[in-house]
């Protein structure tokens, strides 16, 4: 539209035409433009997601547990309400979440287990203080000679992981096995195949307390997990000869129903999906705010802000997953991957896993994708690139990190087993902080990373908010990078382009592992 210049405006226009400097009101000045060729600034997901976005979800999980039996365990009311909370928040953020039900085996003790020495001297061990029954242990009352199985003189070792470890093992004996390297299920299965009547899997050096673990599926023989001190003393006595033990367990098992919550971004390639997940369930003993309310809440906070990345930032589809029944042996993530058709499973570029991001005496653990420590499982190619992304981010902020081994203790396990690259973070569970870690991260050496691990006291006060805040930033930063490109992890895609760009997923579905 043409403008007529009259009066004062005409005077100003003439002064400008003839080069005389005149101060103009801001109203008349053109808007500032970026330099020619300058790239438009990208949103920073780590800056968008703040601790204030995470904390309300933690409080909600605490309230849900408080009014539903004190926990959010799979198969119980607290978990079902947690699922409703997550789906409600996702809908508010613009997602169309799917609640995928599945069935899984459950296990429960009917009466207290017993572990005792009967010869050459007698001693009874206290349940919880000295030993625990591993979840999915079989039932039985066994009194028999005990025999060590490839127990190392020091360190972790591979005790009971290989069939050759049981060479010369007398059938009917009780196997004394040290925790480490392979899963509890593998150790128990090897022992039973060798003719063991029961299995005692004691903790490894440096780990305090009894083994609080799971075999994932029902075993045919009793399996208990004492402390390292008890186990080492039994091994010493057995090597002298004549040691007999009594192992009694009484449990029942069956099947239960739980569910996963899955939500995809609307944008991004359907043939190169970044799956980022955290388990939503707690153990029956407590509300599980650090384990794993911190991971679940961080995931919700990131999901609410990820749309800010826009089409350019979401070149790959991001799939958010809240896994059910992790504390029952990674049942949710395992059932999910098992239910996917092979073609859809191959579209998964990688998995990020968040499990315990705010341990009160924790470290900043990044999964050891390049296997530099030599401990745990060697993860699929590309996992090392994910680790490096986390390390570079925290190095840029001058924050220390430590390598956390892939030991099968969380929901990345089923992905790694299927050759899918994985990465993520944790801050420590029942393990003990070293002096070097205390110097780097603060906190108290010689104390557990989380003294309330799997306990009633895992409440809001059990969370290190400062550590959680920085870790949420790290997760958001790495996820933003991978949402845009996975070239460093998988070359850009696991399979070729998908014809159907709308892509409607066809999901179906009906304690520690080592």
UniProtKB/TrEMBL annotation:
The keyword S-adenosyl-L-methionine does not apply. GO terms for molecular function: carboxypeptidase activity; metalloexopeptidase activity. Keywords: Carboxypeptidase, Hydrolase, Protease, Signal. InterPro entries: M28_fam, PA_dom_sf, PA_domain, Peptidase_M28. GO terms for biological process: proteolysis. SUPFAM superfamilies: PA domain, Zn-dependent exopeptidases. Residues 149-234 form the PA domain. This is Zn-dependent M28 family amino/carboxypeptidase.
